[in-house]
Amino acid sequence: MRGMMRLRLMSGSLALVVGVATVWGQANPTSGGPVDPLLVEDLALSYRILTDREIMDGLGHSSVRHPLNPNRYLISQNRATGLVTPKDIIELDLDSNPVDPNARTYSEVDIHAEIYKLRPDVNSVIHHHAPGAVSFGLGKVPMRPMNQSSRWMLDGVPFFDYRVTNRIEGDSGWERTNLIDTPERGRMAAQALGGSPALLLVDHGAVVTGQSIYEATARSIYMEINAEVQTNAMLRGGELTYYESAGDLRVSGMHSNFARQWDLWKTEACAKAGFCRDGSDTTQYRRPGAQGGRGGAEGGRGGGQGGRGRVAPE
Known about the structure:
single chain; 8 helices; disordered N terminus; 7-stranded mixed beta sheet; alpha+beta
């Protein structure tokens, strides 16, 4: 009798555990594998580089797709952008569940996850609130390239208006927040991005993508420079001649690893950061099997499982 009761108690406990696991998520996702320390270092430095250039202001976030598993990505834990170190970099699946159950990251990680799902060509995503990007997001004046450094936006920069979140079933809409803090909102933003390299968020900021962290970082910087130059040119009035290209020039200009700029930015950031490895300041990470060029990245799409850990907006 006691043996039968013990068995029933054990069965009940097991059922309770299974029930809890079903509600809370069965397990945190497994890691996609080891990541080159150089890539982790450069991801951490992107936060500092963008902060030094007033693209980020303590808020904002950069990520890269895992080089070995396209269903994972790397991003900092929740920390002020100018203080991020390689030790802050954590791994998430494409449902934004952390591999480390104790990890806590930003509330808007769904921006990154949903773009990685829809855009297998994207290997890095950056979200920022630079003043120029915010100002262009307030209106419907198209952001247009002013020179060769911003020619990657030749096909235009689309807008995402957070007020459309009222269309999401169960979402109380923009009256709650303009943040992209749910998978559904992240999916809407990713769809608005489409095949473009960047997206202006109305009353919010911008999202910038790239084939590598180097490209996404440089695009974020030149997007802000472009916003300032375009605004100044428009204020002077008169006819404007915007940058144009065609043929091979247009094709070759859509992507760049910005190697020389990165060398400068990283050297300056490393001088202050205190965590850069000797000799790493003029090297860009290249994914396994990458062909040609300097720089590199990751690829693919997917999904995942596990418990989420988020704190604080942005």
